[in-house]
Amino acid sequence: MSWTSLISHRSAHRRQPPRSALAARAAQRPSPGDHPELAQDLRMARELQQGLLLQTVPRLPRWELAAASLPATEIGGDVYDFPALDNGWHGLMIGDVSGHGLAAALRMAVARTLFRQVAREKLDPGATLAALNRALISEMPHGMVTMMYVHAEIETGVLRFANAGHNFPVVIGRDVRELELSGLPLGIDPDEEYETMTAQLDPGETVLLYTDGITEANDRRERMYGYARLQSLLLRHHQQRPRTMMSTILNTVKAWSENTLVDDMTMVVIRRRLPELDAELRNVCVDVMGEMAAAALWCELGNVPAEPAAWQATLQQVGKTVQARHGRGLSRELLSQLRLTIEEYRTASRVEVGAQG
Length: 357
Known about the structure:
- Helices cover 45% and strands 17% of the residues.
- By secondary structure, it is of the alpha+beta class.
- The strands form 2 sheets. The protein has a 5-stranded antiparallel sheet, covered by helices on one side.
- Residues 2-33 have low confidence and may be disordered.
- α7 (277-289) crosses α8, α7 (277-289) runs antiparallel to α10 and α9 (308-326) runs antiparallel to α10.
- It has 2 domains: 3-272, 4-Layer Sandwich (Phosphatase 2c, domain 1); 277-356, no CATH class.
- It starts with 18 loop residues before the first helix and ends with a helix.
- It has 10 helices and 10 strands.
């Protein structure tokens, strides 16, 4: 994270050091190969960072959730977490700790530990960030953290969120819009209060939480990728599901920067599934196969009853058809995604029936 995070990410003044300056800085930096102690520190930092990032994400009924972090050359302090809450709510947190290397990884560990302690109180997002801010200043007086914390109500799609100097959440649907809410980064002012705002996520819409390693990636002409390009990319791929959308963003930004990443790129993507199973399964087909191939498959399947059992019985036909036209690899990927979706709808239906009973 750069200290320019204190400025709006759309500001024309937010620039990284020129690529030439970054190269010069890298040339002056000791090589890990020449300094065994430095190499050991870097290994420790990388292991600590990767150990703190969750390897799996929670499964939420009627939602899709994915998260990924692509480490930069210099180890940063990106973090995310998903605390469970009461009464049908679930938490989503993404943060970016100042600095790089072992110090940033250690600060990241402290920040996540303190966040989990505060999140157990199950306060609203703004109150949680305010309490975390005070704890960080007490326990980690020389570090700064930007953080976005969201509460999502699983049944209704209501989002409650607070922001401590982080990039705005991006809602992706028929259009792409930001949920604009600012706040001072954590670790600066112990008296800072954080506002909680509310938004509605409709079925089929997606929310992207991300760190500034994405928008601040530079190309060889020293231009930042920037939010405008990210917004345009999301508009073109708004129908993609979370895992595919993350891959699209990561690959696009890596190509932009020619794989020269000076800051970690971290994302949390959550999508509210469509209420109708057949509509959601068609969305899966489009995501895996593309629009034209999915449309052709859909025409051939005809009218399948919108029930998990009926679709489960249809999967064998789907597998044979797709394998004959597109090969075994695509068929396996599609069947895997369809089975997962059908099972999640089946599980969600059981939960709903149990709640009604």
